[in-house]
Structure formats: structure tokens, C-alpha cells
Amino acid sequence: MLRRLTPPARPRWLRWSLGLAVAYGLVATLVLLAVAVLRDRTAVTYTAALFSFWWLLPAPALLVLAVVLRSWRAVAAVAVPAVVCAVLQGPYLLNRLPGGESAHDLRVATYNLTQTAPLDGLYALVQREQPDVLLLQEVTDQSRPALASLPGYPYSSFGPVSGTFEPDGDAVVSKLPITGTEQVTGLPAGARPTALVTLDAGGRRLAVLSVHLASPCIGCLPEKESLNPAGSTSEAARLRVAEARRYGEIAAGLIAQGQPVLLGGDLNSAPLNQPLGELVDAGLVDVHRAVGTWPALTRGPGPGVARVDAVLVSGLEPVRSVEGAAGPSTHSPIVADLAWPGG
What we know:
Elements: H1 2-5, H2 12-38, H3 43-50, H4 52-56, H5 58-68, H6 72-94, E1 106-112, H7 120-129, E2 133-139, H8 144-148, E3 155-158, E4 169-174, E5 178-183, E6 195-201, E7 204-212, H9 222-225, H10 233-256, E8 261-266, H11 274-281, E9 285-286, H12 287-291, E10 309-314, E11 317-323, E12 334-339
Parallel strand pairs: 1-2, 7-8
Antiparallel strand pairs: 1-12, 2-4, 3-4, 5-6, 6-7, 8-10, 9-10, 11-12
Helix pairs in contact: 2-3, 2-6, 5-6, 10-11
């Protein structure tokens, strides 16, 4: 009788699989703890946060498997990474549930063009989506004339071209009138310069920032890393945090004045990295997290490695956010539909 009540021994391959699940869960939890404590201050924690989508992806499936197999040790090990994965990625699944889509008043797109790439991806984006405002990064002296004469976009503002390695800048190209530009001051040394652009959005003043936070050089050889204006991976990560804080200060000041704000660009940071958190803490809403579909891993060829491009707003309501086709660029654009409060 006792022999019949004793559960059968699990096959060796299953025991090994559960052991690997436990090991994965413990390592993933330790990495998450390091990211929470050290944030973007080190190259390791910055990189771990940047690619968190991929290494957290197995956690929910492993948790379900451990529950089904009643391996409570495995459940305990993978619970933390599974919860973090669900919190980070859950909104994109919820946003795919059937529901009515509200009308929008403004369509914007942010797009890192990649310095040396042709503009075919931008032309396709404009033809397909017809954004009212384009926030562009990695604009070179060679691409400026084509952007300044883009059909249907009579207004443009170009930031200074900077950098010692393939110099570039940012731009705001718009169907809406540009009524003012003001150079952003107070950025940390090594940051790309940019301007605060004011648009006339149907009688409303809209403050616009197209930003490109410091570029990393993950895994670069020392000779190439020395050419990066932002320095090493950990130095660039700390610079991005300082940049985001300054942009957050600007946004918070405008919000306090009751002025709507639109900020978009290449943050070179994923949702677990610190810069996006700094901007959200300043009062800006991450549009893609609010209403976006799919994780939108905008960096690299599909399916991408990380969501580093973002549109953030205050004083406007997110309606829709989608990832566009990358085209020749190494980044995908993000297209966001926005509405003024109260219709």
C-alpha cells in the first residue's frame, strides 16, 4: 500500500530540466536585484536592463510548467522574473484586446534615420501614415536638404550637427507651423545638442523635443570605443541618465505652466533602464506603454533587440501607438496618435 502511494520517480531529463529552471530563476532574480540597486551605473546592469525582454521571456512559461509539474522549488525560483516580465510586457497584450479606437487630433512619428542609410524608409512612412509631426534623429548635412523640402511638410527645424564620429543632429519636420525654437541649455558635457521647438497646433502651443540620448558602444574594441563621444558603455549609460534628468526638468517646467509637451526620440534605453523612468517621473506619459501593441523592439532587424525609441506626452491623450517598418534604418519608427483632452 505504501509503495502505491509513493509518487513515481521523475525521469532524469525532467529532473535536469527542473534543475535548469531553478538555476535560471535564481540567476534572473539576482540580475534583477542588481539592476534595481545599481541601475544604469555599470556596463553590466545597463546591458542587462537593455536586453531584459529576451532573457525574461522564458520566465512565465517556466512558471506555468513548474506549477503543472508541482515543482514548488522551481515555482519559487522563477516567480520574481515571471512577475517582472508580466508587468513589463502585459500592457501590450491587454492593448490587443478588442475595443473601440477613439478619433485622434494629432499623429506624430519618431524615427532614427541612421546617418548613412537612404531616406526610403522615411518616404514610405510618410506615404503610409501621413504624420503631422516628424521627430527625426541622426540627421546629417547630406540629408538636411531632402528633409527641408519634404513634400507636404513646409516647416522644419534642425538641431546642430555634432560628434566626432559620423556627426549628426536631430530635426522636427512638421505640417504645423513652427512658431519658435530655443536651444536647450544645461545638458551635460558630451550630450548631443538640441532645441525646444514650439508648434502652433490649431491655436494651441505645443512644446516639442526631438532627442537622441548618448549612444552606447557595447562590446566595442578599445580603439572604436575611444571615438565614441559618450565614452565607454558605463560612462555613456551615466550620461544618458543625466540627459534624461535635464529633459525631465524642462518637461516638468512646461507642465507646471500648463503647456502640452511632446518628446520623442532614440533614448538608447529600454523600459528597465533609468532614463525612461526619469522622463515618466517628470510627468510624461509613455504612449506606447499606454496604448501600444506588441513590445515594439525598435532597435535592430526584426524582431529587434530592445525598445529604445519612444514617444512621451503631457497634456495630450494617447490613442494609438504602433511600430512602423524599419526600412534601410537600423531603427523602426514609432507612430503615435494623440487627442486633446475633452475632444
